[in-house]
Amino acid sequence: MEAVLREQAQAPDEATLAARFRAGDREAFEEIVTLHRRCLYGIARRMLRRHEDADEAAQMAFVRAWSARARFRGDAQLRTWLTRIVLNVSKSMLSARRIEHELPEELSWADAAQTDPGTRIDRVRLRHELRHAVAGLPPRQREVVMLKVYEGRTHREVAEILELSEGAVKAHLHQAVSNLRRGLATGKQMENA
Amino acid sequence: MDCASFENRLTELLGGDSATDTKRETLAELKQHAASCPECHGAGVLVELAGLPPEQRDPLDLPPDSYWEGFNASVATRLDEQQASRASDGAGRRRLIAAASIVAALAVGWSLRGWIDPGPSGARQVAEERSTADPEWSRLEELILLASPEELAEALRGLPGEWSGVAASGWTHGDSGLGGDWMPDIDDLNETDQTDLMDWLDRLESSERRPTS
Predict the structure, then answer these.
(1) pTM to 2 decimals?
(2) Which of A25, A158, B119, B200, by CA, is between 20 and 30 Å from A97?
């Protein structure tokens, strides 16, 4: 966390950085990688689950961003534009390599730090149950849930990333919640049967 | 509260649309409904989730700081390798020209076989003319002569988004007749277009049909 804050504190003005990046300044690009690498890796990790795949996708996304720097017009935030790229790279990897949405049950660092065993088990159970349910959603709804619910992006940002209207984002989220409610109800009924 | 209201309010909470001062009250009502409604009981986990800030809903196990030190270096290496391979002895450029040519030929072949002339003679003429100039064109000949109009159309549909439109519109430069110079000018392409096109060619080659006789 300290490292993240340190990197953000050292961040230069985004418009200046973006202009240098567009002009082909490798140092500016390096700064952009440092600023956004955790974010891109996180998106890829949520999509692909395995560290090795997320690492590959995040690196490929940055390489693509460099290649496409002339297309970045600055009317969106760099983070939004980069998120769109890593999302597309991750989707390509999913379809090309037929990577399944894996659902590892390992404890996260946050869980491991939780000393009350009951709370720890509840959190793992909650997360596991939800990951299964979310993995069963149609792709677009899954993307909206990932960006909105887990990443906490604004409607506007999600709309820009997915190239949808804000209304469509809200509709996808509502549909996803509806599907999750029904899916989780079925799961509970099967459990209780 | 009925199930429809439950869904609406849960969506608002998860989407961050609820006012902060009423959030606790809404959560309590949602929990109450989930506890008493068999249809919504399973969605109790979503209510629990909505009560957490986004960063705590499914925290990722991020790699340690030491990993990030190597990350930038790996990206820089990939970038250098990509640029070096494109610059080395023009091989990348020749391949790119071939890829661009295939797109153009597919568009023309599709037109000839699907729209204008159902026979392969026009396509054959194009393919033969070009194959003498560049060995990569033997692949074109094979593609055009063996593929059905549907398969050609399918190949075009497999192109990255922007390229589909370009190819479907014929993508002609200079004289648009068959005997003219309709080779696309790859210098007009930016690096992303080039990468997209190369990726598409790789996919096309991996699924390419071979003559059976």
Answers:
(1) 0.64
(2) A158
